[in-house]
Amino acid sequence: AEAGGGGPVHHLSRLPETLVEALKAAIQVAVTERRIIGLRRLRRWLAEDPRAGIAAQAVDAPDVELLNAAAGSALPLHGSILVLPEVEDATIDPFRKVVIQMLQTKRTIKKAEIRVAATAALGVEVPTSVYNKVLKELCVVKGGEWQLRSGNEQ
């Protein structure tokens, strides 16, 4: 993957096509439900959740296989975190997109940077309720800054 997390590294999968398709579907379920999930937590989900079905067979697949299978349903951040790009809420998604774009290049963002970027991108001040909802879902506060979650929390 690119520095900072960009897209998946494309290569020929070593997994059978049926397993890749099952893995894509399972990852979509996990990411939609959790909205942010680290690869370690995803592997645990695949092993433990019956909805994973045959995708559980990919629990030990290389990270790149999981990242490639996630393409289309999740965005990779920093090579080990998958995030749901949209929550299908018109009041939240535009701001969510701005925050995710910022998190693609760095794991920690200053509160003031977020407000400036959001106002510049969206042309309006982001309501506090939307700001808090998006950032509390994707980040934790560390020393007055928002830090990307690992996605490996329960």
Short summary:
The chain has 154 residues and is an alpha+beta fold.
Describe the overall structure:
This protein folds into 2 domains: 3-83, no CATH class; 93-148. The chain contains 6 helices and 6 strands. The model is unreliable at 1-6 (pLDDT under 50). 47% of the residues lie in helices and 13% in strands. The longest helix is centred in the first third of the chain and has 18 residues, at 17-34. It is α+β, with helices and mostly antiparallel strands and 154 residues long. It has helices at residues 17-34, 39-48, 63-70, 93-105, 111-122, 128-138, and strands spanning 36-38, 75-77, 81-83, 108-110, 139-142, 145-148.
Whole-number tally of structural domains: 2
Strand content: 5-15%
The gyration radius over C-alpha positions equals 16 Å
Unreliable spans are 1-6
Average pLDDT for all residues: 92
Helix content: 40-55%
According to DSSP, the number of beta strands is 6
The topology string of helices and strands comes to HEHHEEHEHHEE
The main sheet orders its strands as 1-3-2
- How many distinct helices? 6
**Classification by helices and strands:** alpha+beta
- The global form is elongated
